[in-house]
Specification:
The protein is an all-alpha fold. It has one domain (15-87). Helices cover 45% and strands 0% of the residues. The protein contains four helices and no strands. The chain has helices at residues 15-24, 27-30, 36-48, 60-72.
């Protein structure tokens, strides 16, 4: 069953998708293990979170999060929005 108007279909976000995307950047779109509907949902997610633009170009936010990912790994609290208050002035 598909929920009308819900861009992500029935797919929840998976850490391995984010990890692979942050590791490989644009190359991820050319070679990944996602099915056609999964990649469509993931692209909508990446657009909505402003990690890519409408033409699948990587954004400045992607570059920032990639650096955090490289330092802290996929379980970074910053990547997942946990404890952001610690970084606020």
């Amino acid at each position: 069953m598909r929920i009308s108007g819900f861009r992500y279909g029935t797919f929840g976000m998976r850490r391995e998708w984010i990890s692979s995307f942050l590791s490989r950047g644009r190359e991820f779109f050319e070679n990944n293990s996602l099915g056609p509907r999964q990649i469509e949902a993931f692209i909508w997610y990446l657009r909505d979170t402003e990690l890519i633009d409408g033409k699948l170009n990587l954004t400045e936010l992607f570059c920032i999060l990639k650096k955090i990912f490289e330092i802290e790994g996929i379980n970074s609290k910053v990547l997942w929005g946990d404890n952001l208050g610690e970084f606020m002035l």
